[in-house]
Design a protein that fits this description.
The protein has 138 residues and is α+β, with helices and mostly antiparallel strands. Helices cover 31% and strands 46% of the residues. One of its GO terms (molecular function) is proton-transporting ATP synthase activity, rotational mechanism.
Length: 138
């Protein structure tokens, strides 16, 4: 099977760079699956898991807290707001962040506070879902 070049980067660092058979990630309108030869595409991505099936058959999981995706026929670039390798995810921190966001939604003082709390809640919930997915694949 032919491969596609995949780069996952955040503002802090490069998280993954290598060849892959397949990439799946949460696009703005739903889950996207990308193989070599995919039609060019630029889209926003939602918080969630990026699953990379590497050329050797192993899988790599990366949590992204949103960002942008660029697809070319031979290359995939994920520009993430925040990106964390699956094995580096911290369930206790994600649970605490979700709890804080829920409390902030209940105690909001403005529409801006509510929108910020909802965004933080969505990221924390997606991170917990990514942790569950990563554990199932171990």
């Amino acid at each position: 099977m032919s491969t596609i070049r995949v780069d996952v980067v955040s503002a802090e660092q490069s998280i993954f760079s290598g060849e892959a058979k397949f990439v799946a990630l949460p696009g703005e309108s739903g889950e996207l699956g990308i193989l070599r030869g995919h039609t060019p595409l630029i889209t926003r991505i939602r918080p969630g898991s990026v699953r990379i099936e590497k050329a050797d058959g192993d899988e790599e999981f990366v949590f992204v807290a949103g960002g942008y995706l660029e697809v070319q026929p031979d290359r995939v670039t994920v520009l993430a707001d925040t990106a964390i390798r699956g094995h580096d995810l911290d369930e206790a921190k994600a649970t605490e962040a979700k709890k804080r966001a829920e409390e902030a939604m209940q105690n909001r003082t403005s529409d801006f506070d509510m929108a910020l709390a909802q965004s933080e809640f969505a990221v924390a919930a997606a991170q917990l879902a990514a942790i569950a997915r990563f554990r199932r694949k171990k």
